[in-house]
Design brief:
By secondary structure, the chain is of the alpha/beta class. It has 15 helices and 15 strands. The relative contact order is 0.08. It is elongated, with a radius of gyration of 26 Å. The chain has helices at 2-10, 31-41, 64-77, 90-100, 107-118, 122-137, 159-162, 168-198, 214-222, 265-270, 272-279, 295-308, 355-366, 382-391, 413-419, and strands at 13-22, 43-53, 81-84, 103-105, 203-208, 239-245, 249-255, 283-289, 316-321, 333-336, 342-346, 370-377, 393-399, 405-412, 427-430. A hairpin with a 5-residue loop joins β13 (393-399) and β14.
Length: 431
């Protein structure tokens, strides 16, 4: 029994964690979140080394004395990897590796490794590989001789394992190939969005900090079976399902990758085709862990990423999840503004509490958002007719004896206002 226990522990990477408490809020990271990330990566923690600094050290990030303490811990526990809860420069990472004589990965590399484990779809794997190669491209100029006897582990999964001995030219060629393939996926997504737009089916996208419960909420609303687990970045692949909202009709619900504080820019760039579902949505469900003591800070972090992908103008509905974990407990409810418009909904996706209230809040947003109109065009206005077909859902088209065209269609309020400015229309009226 003891022997099995030893073998089981040895199968995991043993890791020495390094956390720096900075005075500057911009450089500060959460230690509890760091532990969750390491757990999600599948490492066995053997030591935690913390220190306090006003600014990073140029050579080792942590200072020479603390760097030697890390090296001593690696030797004492025979650790496989040192994981630093901050972004390191290539030089700092290289200097630490030379001193501690084992792999050193920073927060960015840790998140990339988790993404490499979680990606399931073809698109997700392409996006993760692109992000890893971009991150690796700045770290090629270093010795890998101490890794020759190592098998795959944290920071070495996926393309990290196959590209270690690849020179910069081959790496850049691979990045170009990935960009072309992802661009094809991007075009397919754009085609799907245009098709949904033509059919006049609005889209609701769930966004939020990682582990807020997005996939669980998605499963409750759609009766889908998307993988959900109580850990960071349990799912990466965007999933779309159609649902029916009472009084509002059919909508498309999209589940997206979770956000995190100081999310690597390579990841934002690589997942841009997925995150475009966010910017093109009619409404965002901003899901928040109601029981998280840092929920206000995490709301701000999610807003930053939403702005980064160009979705800051999309209307949002705040949904506070996990109300069953609050003390004292909170019943499911809807908070409305002075005009009766829902602003916040309190639910528990895991226990299926408040789902009907959430559906009512979503339906109230879409009720009255669309108008039925009748547009008349001269026979020679083929270009304007084509624009109408691109703009909204055409319900019916007829023509009279003079060849003049009459189109009955469904438009959003914004599109209705846009069409009213078109010249040379024979008629324009609500149907």
């Amino acid at each position: 029994m003891e022997l099995f226990g030893r073998i089981e522990r040895k199968a995991l990477d043993t890791a020495v964690l390094v956390h720096v408490d900075f005075d500057d809020e911009a450089n500060r990271e959460d230690l509890n979140e760091f532990h969750e990330l390491v757990d999600s990566a599948g490492a066995q923690i053997v030591a935690l080394i913390t220190t306090k600094r006003s600014s990073p050290d140029a050579k080792f990030f942590v200072g020479s004395g603390k760097a030697q303490e890390i090296a001593d811990a690696v030797k004492l526990y025979e650790a496989d990897v040192v994981i630093v809860n901050h972004a390191l420069s290539p030089g700092q990472e290289r200097n630490l590796e030379r001193l501690v004589q084992c792999r050193v990965i920073d927060r960015v590399g840790l998140i990339l490794d988790i993404f490499a484990q979680r990606a399931r779809s073809h698109e997700g794997k392409l996006q993760v590989e692109l992000a890893q190669l971009r991150h690796m491209s700045t770290r090629l100029v270093r010795g890998w001789t101490h890794l020759e006897r190592q098998k795959g582990g944290i920071g070495l999964r996926g393309p990290g394992e196959t590209q270690l001995e690849t020179d910069r030219r081959l790496l850049q060629d691979r990045i170009k190939q990935l960009l072309k393939r992802i661009d094809k996926v991007r075009q397919q997504r754009a085609l799907g969005r245009r098709s949904r737009k033509k059919s006049d089916v609005p889209t609701v996208t769930i966004v939020g900090y990682t582990n807020a419960g997005k996939s669980t909420l998605f499963n409750q609303l759609t009766t889908a079976e998307v993988y959900a687990e109580d850990r960071l970045f349990a799912t990466l692949d965007a999933t779309l399902r159609s649902i029916h909202l009472p009084g509002a009709g059919k909508v498309i619900l999209a589940d997206t990758v979770g956000f995190i504080r100081h999310i690597p820019h390579d990841l934002v760039a690589a997942f841009r085709s997925t995150l475009e579902e966010t910017s093109e949505a009619n409404l965002l469900i901003h899901l928040v862990d109601a029981n998280d003591p840092l929920r206000e800070e995490k709301i701000i972090e999610v807003q930053k990423v939403i702005a980064e992908v160009g979705a800051q103008e999309v209307p949002q509905l705040l949904v506070f999840n996990k109300i069953d974990q609050l003390d004292p407990a909170v019943d499911p409810k809807i908070d409305c503004d002075e005009h009766g418009v829902p602003q916040r909904v309190w639910v528990s996706a895991k226990l299926n509490l408040g789902m009907e209230l959430l559906q009512d809040a979503l339906a109230s947003f879409f009720k009255g958002q669309f108008v039925k109109v009748r547009v008349g065009l001269p026979a020679a206005s083929g270009q304007q007719r084509a624009k109408l077909y691109q703009l909204g859902k055409v319900d019916r088209e007829t023509c009279d004896d003079q060849g003049q065209i009459y189109i009955n269609m469904t438009l959003t309020q914004q599109q209705w206002q846009q069409v009213q400015l078109w010249p040379d229309l024979l008629c324009l009226e609500r149907a």
